[in-house]
Amino acid sequence: xxxxxxxxxxxxxxxxxxxxxxxxxxxxxxxxxxxxxxxxxxxxxxxxxxxxxxxxxxxxxxxxxxxxxxxxxxxxxxxxxxxxxxxxxxxxxxxxxxxxxxxxxxxxxxxxxxxxxxxxxxxxxxxxxxxxxxxxxxxxxxxxxxxxxxxxxxxxxxxxxxxxxxxxxxxxxxxxxxxxxxxxxxxxxxxxxxxxxxxxxxxxxxxxxxxxxxxxxxxxxxxxxxxxxxxxxxxxxxxxxxxxxxxxxxxxxxxxxxxxxxxxxxxxxxxxxxxxxxxxxxxxxxxxxxxxxxxxxxxxxxxxxxxxxxxxxxxxxxxxxxxxxxxxxxxxxxxxxxxxxxxxxxxxxxxxxxxxxxxxxxxxxxxxxxxxxxxxxxxxxxxx
Length: 384
Hints:
mainly alpha; 18 helices; cell membrane; Cit_transptr-like_dom; transport; single chain; SLC13 family permease
């Protein structure tokens, strides 16, 4: 609810900026034209993921990976890494934080393993693995527009090496941190029965059909909306009670909409000139590191989405936009508010009774985030 209140305040401020001429109406219209497909995709993919989770798809996959691990905790953890990367890449970082986290925590507990290594894995990879595909993060979809790429393959080619580094570095840190827990063995528990097999298989089928469509170059809101409509119809027939207003990420949409308006007004007032002095210019290794670190610091100070929106105008080239994405996607591992996904993740942990003090989270992130961002940026430099 706090996010909704903040979003409402931002929308009011944006409306004042339009009414007073600070933000010209034409600029506001151009902004709306740019962001409505992104927000529509965010709504549709959230509905798809929530309903698939309600059908038991994520839980079934996680339980079967636990059995496939053969009692080896480290192998189960590797399967969780793969699930987190795939979930983040295709269904966005918020899906991983909100829906995959409780699944892996419960799987760990059912098999007598400490849940924290698996929970922290989902939190870190929800952020760092969001460099993989345009649909992985709202920042990427915004950058796709700025890059002028109509083919997702060009985005992947640009960020493939940094994305790989941004996944590997946190995983190595997690292996070192939880090496004793991951060296344990366990007795796999039996998977729970699926309540409605027809609902399960239809939901799984919709997901399997949707994932490749998200990387074909079709505007991503189209297949996402189609998948959401199919699942809504199916659930209306077989489990109507699951269709509730809470499925819609309306608070996120309200917040993002207000944020877009306020930052666009800020740029009209000269924010770009100020930030250009902070983020610098050029495409030398030092210049790209300066921009990516600026993005990381901005994300941990005010959240990754406003940090990206604020710094996007000073990026100015595909290579610099890639460096900025590294900072705002792989860098939000330090403060609780660095990304909405982190806040949602911690809320789920509290609901599940998993203890992790913010002080410990901040300390670990303060070590891992800078190393990840710097190495990923150097990977970008070497791969160009």
